[in-house]
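Follow-up to my post from last week.
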Amino acid sequence: MRTWFRTLAVTLLGAASGAHACDYCLISQGISPLQTQNGAGIKLAQRYTLLDSVYAGHHKVDNPGVKEEYWTTELGAFYSFTDRFLMLLNVPLRKTKGNGELVEGPDGEPEREDSTGGATGLGDVSVLGRYTLFARHTLATSTLVAGVAGIKFSTGSTDQRNDQGEFLDSHLQLGTGSTDMLLGLSATHAFGRYTLSANLLAALPGEGETGDTSHKFGTSLNYDITGKYRLTPSVIGASSNQWFASLGVNGEYRRHEQLGGEKLDDTGGQTIYLTPGIQYVAGSHWVLEGAYQYAVFHDLNETQLGEDYKVFGSVTYLF
Amino acid sequence: MLRFLLLTMLWLPAIGPAASYAAGFKSEYLQQLDEAAPDFLLRDASGSQLQLYKLRGRPVILHFWATWCKPCRHELPALEALAGKLADSGIVFLLVAIDGDTEAAAVRRYAQDLGVRLPIYLASDSTVTDRYWSWGIPVTYLIDRNGLLVGRALGPRDWDSAAMRAVLVQFAAQSR
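User reply:
Got it. Predicted complex:
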């Protein structure tokens, strides 16, 4: 349930990352995304995101030494009000760290500008509702299609400063400063030891502020197709514990951002990931998950810092 | 893209099930099914055989459990109490343990220690397909008088609650 947008100062070429440290991804992508079973539960998740590569369009170019890192701890809770309607709450705690910013050099090549900074604290809280639009069950299969709608609130601060006393770029702030609409679809088809899921989640950002400047992140679309296979047991019967392996293709498309009403040309684009993962279900209450989200394709507008990978793990307790 | 999402969300309810077998299923999170129950043969402790298709004409609650399943430990006594209270409904209760490694006598003794007097059957001593519990246990099916699977409860339920009893009474009546 989250997304951490980024922006650049107008004068910078690609101040790191239109490259989407996608923080809604844990609900729209991954091993057990939006199609949470009915019931109630709490989830503690940890994610690390590294941006250490520079892309011009879909070409990787030399990185002059710019790097960004994000650590996000998420406290989530979900509750089914009816057999079709479920609500999710996500409270993120973020730590951001930026080392250098990309600027355009005299020859047009990206150069590093000294700037170190980061922030730690509460991010933007989001609330989502999921409504099952279609359900069909047989002895051997289960198919669900659900609609998702939600709001991301501007609870994270946007006035954090770097070591030189200047406002951090908006993507390094704890929040976006805007109230955003979330809208999506989720489909799941389970048969035997296999589960296939597909998810779409659009984020429609409102106007926010970074420091003392108005800023608007670009509309984004997160998408995901993931297959999951129960490794063991082959037939339920000897134990209540289960191991699953998953492989997903997911990504994010993001439109340009605006700063002070002006479009930022070197923001937005698309990143696609390959995501292997593993899940352990211990009894009927505990679910442990881990996944590695490796960026395999970038198509970023102009020149930007792009994501290399994300690693995340979570523990869920089902009541 | 946004327009596509909105249109799709508006359209999807139209392809959902046109009719609900039992509205009460929703309140108890019972999945609706509509297919013939695969037949099987069960044996009780005395060796007597029971074939599912011979129960046509009576509603059946088919429950799969295991001795290692903690939630099942709470469900079995509730099912026993439910069976007593719905004795006039004509519902047949089939409690099938899927333990693979535990001796049949030990499984039945386990159930007896929980106060269960209903017959206990073992999957290992039957022809029941593991497709019934392929997604885990406890899992419970409702089979109507025509031998159709009409409901499924994945995971534990409070079987002896007033709300669930009302749903099952409705199920027994509607499946006539």
